[in-house]
Amino acid sequence: MNARLTALLIATAALVPATAHAEEREFCADRPGLGTPACTLATGDAMVEIGLAAWDHSRDRATVDDDVTAGDVLVRLGLGETTEVHLSFAGYAHQRVRDRATGGVTSVSGVGDVTLAVRQGLAGANGPVAVQAFVTLPTAKDALGAGRLSGGILLPVEVDLPGDFSLGLTPEVDLMPDAERHGHHLAWGGVIGLSHPLGEKLSLSGEVGMFRDDDPDDANTDARFAAALAWQVAERVQIDVEADAGLSAAAPDRTLALGLAWRF
Fold first, then answer.
1. Residue 218 burial (CB < 10 Å; 0-12/13-18/19+)?
2. Out of 21-25, 112-116, 165-169, 250-254, which region has the weakest mean confidence (pLDDT)?
């Protein structure tokens, strides 16, 4: 099934003419933040989004955890007026855990999983509502990825509010592998956020995300707050920075991330 899906996406992408005229529309990057935009790329347009670096830090009575990632890549391609496909690679990751009692350190490094996705706008190219389905292939070491095939569906919604504010909603339902790798279970949640321009090229956003993982052996809730700045340094290039604060025990205490998006 995985091979068939991959072949279908590649074959469809090959049908798009390389010289297709890119319709001008809003700069539509997935980065930064926790939610997902409802906009889509024009036919023949492509966007590469890179997570240059990110750091998660957590500590409790027993351990101190530091996770560093670099080189996450998302490639998006517009296939129709309101349709696009995604191919994302989780880049290099290094996880370090220090035992606070003994001082012992364990670590693991490697590359992450690969994800394929399709986004379909349901009310136009620039939103305000879309649907996105994805499947994640377990290409990473067990400690760095899902370990088995997983997937899910999202329903991004964007609403313009008075005063140049924009409200974003991203409900999501996933099918995730059990921690013991014997089956799958549901995970669900969503993100709600507000964004506002700080000028022609700069925008600020704040979001709250909650994701419930109903693993039969380790159910938990990841809740966090995220604040992000996005700076469109050129017509087709954006740089972003993000800072998150954990609101639940399952979320990292804090996260810092830096990235960019380039449409071409």
1. exposed
2. 21-25
